[in-house]
Amino acid sequence: MKSAHDIIIRPVITERSTSDAAVGKYTFVVAKNATKPEIRQACEKLFNVKVLQVNTVNYDGKNKRMGVHQGLTSAWKKAVVTINMDPHPEVYKTKGGKEAQKTRKYKTSIEEFGFGQ
């Protein structure tokens, strides 16, 4: 099993990703072979947030040349992670029919990369 640091490589900081962070969408470069459930678990573990949705895009390498030499840039995978901006405690029924709550605290932003409000 891969660790969370192996799955999430770095944040993508662009004008668009910075504006999307205000509504709870954070963009990361992730491992090429990472699946959506692995990305979700890694984000929840690293940043202590509740992930609602994960969207991924695979990018192929581009052709580049320098003089007579040519080659490809590396292929990479981007993940856009939507977090819960308004976490409520989870309410569920116990065996006796009583209502109980999970009072787990989640953060509403990821401040580690300067995306917080």
Kindly describe this structure.
With 117 residues, the protein is α+β, with helices and mostly antiparallel strands. It has a single domain (4-107), classed as RRM (RNA recognition motif) domain (Alpha-Beta Plaits, 2-Layer Sandwich), CATH 3.30.70.330. The protein has three helices and eight strands; from the N terminus they run αβαβαββββββ. The chain has a four-stranded antiparallel sheet. A hairpin with a 5-residue loop joins strand 7 (90-93) and strand 8. The two termini are 34 Å apart. The relative contact order is 0.21. The model has no long low-confidence stretch (mean pLDDT 87).
The run of helices and strands is: HEHEHEEEEEE
- Characterize the largest beta sheet: strand count, sense, and whether it forms a barrel: 4 strands, antiparallel
* Dominant shape: elongated
Helical residue percent band: 10-25%
Mean pLDDT across all amino acids: 87
Q: Order of strands across the biggest sheet?
A: 1-2-6-3
Total strands: 8
Give the helix tally.
Answer: 3
Kindly provide the radius of gyration, computed on alpha-carbon positions and rounded to a whole number of angstroms.
Answer: 18 Å
What fraction of the residues are assigned to beta strands by DSSP?
A: 35-45%
